[in-house]
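REQUEST ID: PR-0412
SUBMITTED BY: lab tech R.K.
PRIORITY: routine
TASK: structure prediction, single protein chain
INPUT:
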Amino acid sequence: MNFVRHSPSSLNLFAASPSMFVLEKVLGRRQPVGAAAHRGTAVEEGVAFGLDNPDAPTAECVAIAERKFRSLMALNTDPRREKVEDGIAAMVERALTALRPYGRPSSKQGFIEWRPEGLTYPIVGYYDFAWDSHGIVVDLKTTEKLPSAIKPGHARQVSLYTGGNMEGRLAYITPAKSAVYQLEDVAAHRACLHRMALACERFLALSDAPQFFVSITAPDLESFYFAPQGARQAAFEVWGV
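STATUS: complete
OUTPUT:
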């Protein structure tokens, strides 16, 4: 195993699906990224351009996002591709409407590293947008269904990005709606992220043999983590289920 750092996404995966964590992080069998995840990356690129260039027409920002999506999907066979791509234009437009009032970001894709006491490895991540003049950091999430509140995993993620002294916000964007929620109880979410990292390190310290972790986990094939055909095949090859 070549483990050198934690991330909110890997810790959320460890908590939600230990078997997928073992498959990807211990065995190194990364699962393909689907169209929805690539759409998120593409929308962010279009929105970033629009925020840096407040006079740019929305159509130009959409075109940038759509080109990025097609580039990312060049070799991807996700059957949802066409449906997912159809939502890009509306998502870019809604995100710009929500975030342009903040002005130009002072930074984008900023690297954060946190080394809380007791951890061997740091917890790291990259926030989407920060406005130092407002003391705000925002993470952009594209989704099909608008949540009524910040999801717990996202709350832990953004708590890292605040550094404990910035106000964290989640901007959820769907093709039809958008909402920006302020993160509350930042210290509690950061403490939870810390506890998860400690648990993850204790888990990984149990053995140096990857197959040991296969022997103490079992995949939940009803979980969305194992919904793709490739993931189900990997589960059969690794766990025989």
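NOTES: Strands lie at 107-108, 111-114, 123-126, 129-131, 136-142, 167-173, 178-182.
REVIEWED BY: pending
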